[in-house]
Structures are given as structure tokens and as C-alpha cells.
Amino acid sequence: MFAFASLYTQIPGLYGPEGILPARRMLRPQGKGRWQQLWETPTLLWEAPRLGLDTAQGVELLSLLGTVLALGPLLLHRLRHPLIYLLLWAAYLSPFSPQVGQVFLYFQWDSLLLETGFLAVLVAPLRQPSGRNQAPQGGLVGASAYKSLPFWLLVRWLLFRLMFASGVVKLTSRCPAWWGLTALTYHYETQCLPTPAAWLAHHLPVWLHKLSVVATFLIEIAVPPLFFAPIRRLRLAAFYTQVLLQILIIITGNYNFFNLLTLVLTTTLLDDQHLAAEPSPCHPRKMPTSWPRALLTKLSLLLELAVYGTLAYGTAHYFGLEVDWQQRMVHSRSTFTFHQFSQWLKMVTLPTMWLGAASLTWELLAALWGWVQVQGWLRKVCAAIQLCVLGTTTVALFLISLVPYSYVEPGTHGLLWSGAHHLFDTMEHLQLANSYGLFRRMTGLGGRPEVVLEGSYDGHHWTEIEFMYKPGNVSRPPPIVVPHQPRLDWQMWFAALGPHTHSPWFTSLVLRLLQGKEPVVRLIQNDAAQYPFHKQPPTYVRAQRYKYWFSHPGEQGRWWHRQWVEEFFPPVSLGDPTLESLLRQFGLKDKTPPRTRSSSHALARALHWVRTQLSSLEPPNLLWGLLGAVGAVRVVQALLASSSPQSFLMNREEKHKLIPKRESGAASTPATPTPNNCSSGSRPPRWKK
After folding, report:
1. Using CA atoms, how far apart are residues 415 and 404, in angstroms rounded to an integer?
2. 263 contacts 248 by C-beta, under 8 angstroms
3. Which residues contact 99 (CB under 8 A, 6 or more apart)?
4. Mean pLDDT of the 498-521 span
5. pLDDT of 675 above 60
6. Is 262 helix (H, G, I), strand (E, B) or coil?
7. Which of 18, 92, 93, 83 is CA-nearest to residue 56?
8. Region (Disordered): which ranges (predicted)?
9. For 563, phi and psi rounded to 5 degrees?
10. For 577-680, where are the alpha helices, taking DSSP H only?
11. Residue 280: which pLDDT band, with cuts at 50, 70 and 90?
12. Burial class (CB in 10 A: 0-12, 13-18, 19+), 67
């Protein structure tokens, strides 16, 4: 819901006919058959002309439908169906195509959402339970066992690949900040869109920053193998470490829906017992335990303690942790070399694949055992079909995922089965498996580079063009925009890392500002009155590169310091030879005039009306408004459910279940029921026979 709604607010400025990269310029038929064209470029936007819409309007329609489809499962259990998630996946894959989304949809979290979304198709139940607390009967036993295949393996395996690769690439990149454990002394200041809490975190002691980097390596590299641990408490410990990391990232940075999506993936480490809402009995009856089970419990406890001890010793040894009691700090440093780490990575990458394969085998055997227990030949046949489909799909997706995962270690990549490579090459464009590696290198070690746009009417007096979210005015505090992703602001951050020729879209942005195109202006300032050239477009536009640093504690009214570095983009005007040359060089000068948007179709008029109604809302407010509406509806649903007659009868039945049954040898003695509370001094209630 967040991803679709956030994208919807930016479509006209990014992909509209007057946008930065108009989608009409990219999506064009190539004279191929309909199905071949759909397979090579998997997007539903091929059908937009049949509805009387251009490509950008088609993206708007898909974004709106995606938002509504995502709202459905949030509100109604019956809509949590594989078909709904398949439609969501297809709708988000359509604009993600390189021929449409281009550079503004080229982010790892978009790929992660697509991969997770396809897994949701496999995880979602085909039919919902008819009643609460109902034990599965017959074929449902097999169905629940089969659904554990994609849920417990593929989703957990995806979480493992995401976290393990994100930790490994920080060291394989040879970034001196990560190897020197000083990355976080720069990160809070140089990340794309910091929050006000990032300013506070930036001014923490250096030794604490270095210790935090050590904790990051521990959580991202050492802990992920515990996702597949057979001991429940180890998986719970891994869960809470991952949640802690994601929450700290959310507090200090605006990373849209990425961390929220990662938190969703971490729920695969939990179980129903840990999430149980019903309280356990006050005085549970102690059941006699056999000696093999008692021995297994003690061995599990010893193994758990051994794992914790190994993690603690390894962290202290490989990062040279030393406590300085006099200065009240912990010293840390990397005590291993790049060669040693490369050898270790080569040694563990293949075993982690075998770990995933072993988990897959176990789940397949468990599913097969569930099929054996199914009663009735018709149910057995249906369960066998479901097992074959889900089992084959799970194995295929696991093989596909091994290829991008092996990118972390090139030597292992060449050892993979050639069939896995062929399968991955065939399905790669569907985004079913992707490689991940966040924060590979730390940028801005000498100061945060930032591009500042300026406009002028005479070429002498320049006025800065302030963006809503990215740093600009040194007196403005960093905003909180999560879960919205302002995609232009993000690309401005990447553009500042190199020359403007590395970001061809920037030339198109300058052109649209000179033309005064409203959709692009709204990406910069949603309130037109805040845009300095809202009355008349600027005659000249240029861009300067600055370096920004957080202000020091005690400075009133300042959040940033900045220093001019160089000119990023030369002053140009409409018709300027330099601008025209750049437009031709980057293929941004369309020879065919843009077609006027069709407004005769009812669907096009409806899209325009919805856009008009929502245009005044700032995107973060719109997203949080949707979430607030979902929360309000869920509260009303819970209140109505608790007051319904069915709920009253269910609660009454549950209370009667607490009454202990009479033993056969004590039929003449009235049974004294156990009170349904924990008060030792209260009189037991009288129960009618």
C-alpha cells in the first residue's frame, strides 16, 4: 500500500508527458506477437491503449488499483488470497520494467518488494478457516503443511540472503570506513534523507560509533545463520537483534518502506506459541518427562549457551574489544585482513547454500508426512496435486535464488549447477530473485556532497530552488517522510556523487524547470506558493555543488554548515546550444511531438478527477492517512466482533473447557473446578451440574 500510494503521487512529474522521463518515449510496440512481447517486457501497460489511456495514465491506474487491492487484505481476511497477491505483484512489476520506470524505480527495495510479493502468492491460503480456533480437518492438514514450504523456507531464506549479503559487501568492497569501523561517524550525516534523530546520533562519542559498526557486522553476518537453527530460542534471539537494527535505522533515516518490509520478513523467525494472545494456565499440570526428552532439553540448552559464547568470543577476538574502565569506553579495531576474510567467505558461502538445501529437504519431508496423514482418496489426490505444485515451485525458486546469492563470492558463483544459471537467466526479468547489498561503500567522507539548483530572470541575481525533503536551507531541520520515498530527491543524492553527465535525467529536469512544467515543480514543492518561480518560469537555470556538514551542538537555528565546491551544471536557457546538445546526446529530445492526453474516455476523466482531489495532500500525510483509516476500521471491526452473539458463545464454550472432567473412580464425589483466575485467596465459583 505504501509503495503504490507513494509512487502514485509522483507519476505525472516523473513519467507524464510533461515529466522528467516521459513513459511514452520508452514503451513502444516492436512488431512482435502479443504474448512474446508480454513475456520479454512483462507489463500490463501494453493494454493501456485499449482502455483509452497513455502509458503514464496506465501507471496511474495501476497505482490506484494497487493501493485499493493492498487495502483489501488489510481490512478483510477473505481477501488474503493468492489471486490478490498475484495481481499486486503484476501491478508493481508493470511500471518497474526498465522501459517504463527507468532510473527512478531502480532501487533495491523495489526489487525486494517484488520478490517478497511473489512469495506472498505462494504463502497466502487458498481458503480461509471458517471459524476461530478450529482444528484443521482432513485435507487442511496437508494444506497447512504445504504452505510451510514457501513460508518457512523461501521467505526466511530471502531474509537470510538480504541480511548476510548486506553485511558481507561492506567488507568485500574494501571501503576504509567500514574496515576502520568509522563508517557511522559519516553515515548519519551523509545518508540520503536523514531525520532529526540522525543529528543527535551523529554527535555520539566516536568509540560508540565504532562499537555500533561491530554490532552491525555481528547482526548482519554472524546472526543470520541462526535463522535456520533448530533451537527455538536461538531463532527468537536472532529475531530481536534484527528488529533492533531495523528500528534504529527507521529512527535515524528515511528509507521509505524498506525497513518496514524487512520487519515483515523477520516475522518468519517467530512461531504461534510466541505470538499467542491467550494467557497460559495459572498452575499448569506438570507432565512426566521421559529421560530422552529431558536429555535432549539439556543438550539444547548447552548448545544454545555454546552459540552465545562463540558469538561473544568471536566478536571480542576479531574486533579487538577492550574495556577502558578509566575513560569509560570500549576500544575496538579490526584484527583480521581482507585476505583472511576472503578465505573465510569462500569457506562458508557454499555451506550456507547447503544449509538452505537441508532446510528445504526437511520441509519437503514434513510436507510429505502431512500428505501421508490425509484421509480419503479424493482429499489425498487434491493434496498430492497441491504438494507437487508448491514443491516444484519452491525448489525452482530456491535454485534461482542461489545465483544472485553467489555473487557475494565469485569463486562459488562458478561452482553452481549450470541448470540453476540457465533457470535464472530465463526468469531474471520477472524479478523473482535478486542480489542485495546495502551501504556497500560509505560516501561523503570529506563532507556530504549536495546539488543546489538556482534560477534567475537576468542571469545575475540567482535564487535557490528549495526541495521539500533533501537538505538545502541550512536552517531547516531534516524532515520525517517515512514511509514515502521522494524518488527525485533520492536521485539528486546520487547525482551529487559524480558529474551531471553520469545522471542524464538531470538535463531533462533543467529543461522542465525552464519550461515551468507544473508536474515537475510539484515534485520539488507540493505547495506552489513555496516555489520561488511559481508566477513565471526562470529564464536561466544552473546548479552548484556544495558540501554539507551537521552543525555543532549549541548552535541555535542551524542544522547544517555548507561550503561551495564547484559548478555542477552551467547556466542555460531555452534554446541554449549547450542544453540542446546535451538533450540530443542523451536521447532526451523526442522528435515526435507529445500526443495530447485523451480526456474523452470516462476512465481518463475519472483518473483526472481523483488526481485533482488528492493533489493538495502532501504524500507523507496521504500515506499515514491511509494507515490511520485502516487502523480505525480494524478497531471498529474488533469492537463489532467482540459484541456479536457468536463471539459470546465462543467465549462461553472456552470457559466450559476449563472445567475439569470427573475421573471415572470418583463418580460419587462432586468435582471441585479450578477457578479461572490466579487469586489464591478467592473462593472457587459454584458450577451447575
Report:
1. 13
2. no
3. 26, 27, 41, 43
4. 95
5. no
6. helix
7. 18
8. 655-689
9. -140, 130
10. 577-585, 602-614, 619-642, 645-657
11. low
12. buried
DSSP symbol at 231? S
AA letter at 63: S
Q: What's the order of all strands across the beta sheet hosting 448-456?
A: 463-464, 448-456, 540-550, 560-572
Which residues are 407's β-sheet partners? none
Q: How many CB atoms within 10 Å of residue 109?
A: 20
CA distance 238 to 270: 10
Q: At what angle do helices 619-642 and 55-75 cross, to 10 degrees?
A: 30
What φ, ψ does residue 271 adopt, rounded to 5°? -140, 170
Q: What is the DSSP string of 33-74?
A: -HHHHHHHS--GGGGGGGGT--HHHHHHHHHHHHHHHHHHHH
Other CB atoms within a 10 A radius of the CB of residue 495 amount to 22
**Closest Cα to residue 139, out of 361, 445, 362, 377?**
377
Contact yes or no for 543/453 (Cβ under 8 A): yes
Least Cα distance to 270 among 308, 242, 310 occurs for 242
Helix (H) / strand (E) element for 368: namely helix 338-372
Cα 3 from chain centre: 9
Determine the number of helices (DSSP H) and then strands (DSSP E) in the chain. Answer: 26, 6
Query: Which sequence spans correspond to the domains of the chain?
Result: 1-106, 448-589
Set of cell numbers at residue 577: 546550444
Q: Which amino acid is at 564?
A: W
For residues 38-51, average pLDDT: 86
Pair type for strands 463-464 and 448-456 = antiparallel
3-class state of residue 530 by DSSP: helix
CA distance 497 to 442: 11
Is residue 649 very low, low, confident or very high in pLDDT (cuts 50, 70, 90)?
low
What's the full length of the chain, in residues?
689
Q: What is the pLDDT of residue 146?
A: 63
User: What is the biggest distance separating any 2 CA atoms in the chain, rounded to whole angstroms?
Assistant: 106
Q: Look at the pTM and tell me if it is higher than 0.85.
A: yes
How far apart are alpha carbons 431 and 42 in whole angstroms? 10
Residue type present at position 148: S
Residues 6+ away with beta carbon under 8 Å from 112: 162, 258, 261, 262, 434, 436
Radius of gyration of the chain (CA): 29
| Cis? peptide before 483, omega within 30° of 0 | yes
Q: What angle do CA 8, 12, 15 make, to 5 degrees?
A: 95
Assigned C-alpha cell, 642 = 467482540
Q: How far from each other are the two terminal CA atoms of the chain, in whole angstroms?
A: 53
- The β-bridge partners of 544 are 452, 567
Mean pLDDT of the chain: 86
All three cell numbers of 19: 515529466
Q: Which residue has the cell 502468492?
A: 121
Report the amino acid identity of residue 210. K
d(CA 357, CA 224): 16
pLDDT at 196 over 80: yes
Note the Cα 108 to chain centre separation in Å.
9
Cβ 486 vs Cβ 523: under 8 Å: yes
**Cβ atoms 332, 210 nearer than 8 A:** yes
Neighbours of 545 (CB within 10 A): 18
List the one residue out of 564, 584, 512, 503 whose CA is nearest residue 541. 512
Instruction: Compute CA 251 distance to the chain's CA centroid, rounded to the nearest angstrom.
Output: 15
Joined together, the cell numbers standing for residue 352 give 550456507
